Amino acid sequence: MMPLLSIAEIYALIDEFDPVRYGKTRNYQNGGVSKLSAYFSRGVISTRQVYERLRERGFSLYEMEAFLMELCWRDHSQRVWQHHDPQLEARAAQHYIHNDQQLPTAILEANTGIQAIDDALRELRATGYMHNHLRMYLAALVCNHYGAHWRTAAKWFFGQLCDADAASNHLSWQWVCGANAPKVYYANQDNINKYTGSSQKGSPLDTSYEALPALRIAATWQTPNYLFEPNPTNPALIDTTLPTHIYTPYHLDPKWRNTTTANNILFWDLQHWDDYPFSEAVFNWINDLAKVQIPNIQLVVGTWGDLQSRLNLQDTFTKEHPLTAAYGVNVDQRAWLWPLSEEKPGSFFNYWKKVQKHLRREN
Ligand SMILES: Cc1cc2nc3c(=O)[nH]c(=O)nc-3n(C[C@H](O)[C@H](O)[C@H](O)COP(=O)(O)OP(=O)(O)OC[C@H]3O[C@@H](n4cnc5c(N)ncnc54)[C@H](O)[C@@H]3O)c2cc1C
Question: Hey, CA dihedral for 334, 168, 60, 339, is it positive or negative?
């Protein structure tokens, strides 16, 4: 699994990160990517914090541009997801679907015959991480050539990532298969070889770009196994004379309200489990990360109905996240690269242009 870093260690990682090298190499599997996504997705750090730290080191907006654009993709996806409408999503068309319930056995067993993808699937299992370009290759193979439904694949993939995040994940799967984008994303073996350093020939993707849209790969199919579901835990010991801070798998910010003594609860809402299940390994990793970040944190697995009956909601606090919007407690806002309006954003590039204008003004 990804390393269980303290906030000081995460800052050290940011301080070693080179945004200029990132701009030149990010698409290569061995390029200078930040590996910060798990700490963003778990809410330990924000895009704004990382930007400010890089600015303090003297990087210009120009030098940071490629990296800031990626941070902005993250913020844009989060804003889109705040307006997420499952009804609209259900109607989004996918270019090619062969089986809308299951996944190819070759994917689940890391045996697709495309070495770079099989290696990345094994790495995913071992570390909870996959490089962005490999995620794109994987999604293209799964949806556009095997013909799995993006939703089945996105749910399975989400559960194995330390950086699992519904916005970035589900929107990316939709983007690759053309369900929320005008084009379908394809990559052939030559492209995979170039960016992963492999030199494979004769794989199922060893063909021309012209041939890719019609390339269908036959498979045996299997229902992905979501058998792990955490057991409800005993109610936390709650001191009713203190406020309660609700942390979640999406909000583990160690700097948040950290000068107040409070009941610190990491709440796993079982009502989210059907749509957003984690593997046991990632569930355990998140619990361990929470213990590193937040003093005296108590883990509670259950339903919000059960937990809220034991809380004074007026003295209970959390941080904004779409999955916890209905809790009816005090909500603090998340930090953004630049906050902009809370309306549903238009295209990424319009969003980026606006953020860029504000960042230029403050530099
Ligand atoms: C099919 C698919 C599924 C994905 N699922 C997730 C997910 O569940 N959680 C997640 O955090 N990211 C997801 N991504 C986006 C991206 O792959 C990861 O954020 C990135 O690979 C994480 O590695 P890094 O921190 O080294 O990224 P870097 O390249 O160093 O990028 C820096 C940060 O920018 C943001 N970022 C980079 N690329 C993207 C992107 N395409 N969309 C949104 N934000 C981005 C991330 O927060 C990342 O940490 C997915 C992409 C694809 C194609």
Answer: negative
Q: How far is CA 107 from the centre of its chain?
A: 20
Question: At 349, phi and psi to the nearest 5?
Answer: -70, -35
> Which among 35, 44, 70, 349 is the best mutation to test ligand 1's pocket, defined by most ligand atoms within 8 Å of the CB?
70
Nearest ligand 1 atom to the CA of 77 is 43
**Secondary structure (3-state) at 310:** coil
CB burial of residue 97 (10 Å; 0-12, 13-18, 19+): middle
Q: Kindly report the protein residue whose alpha carbon is nearest to atom 24 of ligand 1.
A: 35
How many domains does the chain contain in total? 3
Tokens of 57: 């080191």
Domain shared by 42 and 113, yes or no: no
User: Residue 110 has which token pair?
Assistant: 């890391």
- 49 and 142 housed in the same domain: no
pLDDT digits (tens, 9 = 90+) for 131-186: 999 999 999 999 999 999 999 999 999 999 999 999 999 999 999 999 988 899 99
The torsion angles phi and psi of 44, rounded to 5 degrees, stand at: -75, -40
Sequence-separated (6 or more) residues with CB below 8 Å from residue 207: 188, 189, 215
Residues 312 and 240 sit within 8 Å (Cβ to Cβ): yes
For ligand 1, atom 6: residue with the closest CA = 169
Question: Is 229 part of any domain?
Answer: no
- Model pTM above 0.90: yes
Find the CATH number of the domain harbouring 120: 1.10.579.10
The residue segments making up the domain with residue 255 are 244-332
Tens-digit pLDDT profile for residues 23-55:
999 999 999 999 999 999 999 999 999 999 999
The residue to which tokens 């930040």 are assigned: 34
- Angle among Cα 260, 266, 268 to the nearest 5 degrees reads 155
Are both 99 and 132 inside the same structural domain? yes
Residue 246 pairs in a beta bridge with: 265
Q: CA 77, CA 141: separation in Å to the nearest integer?
A: 23
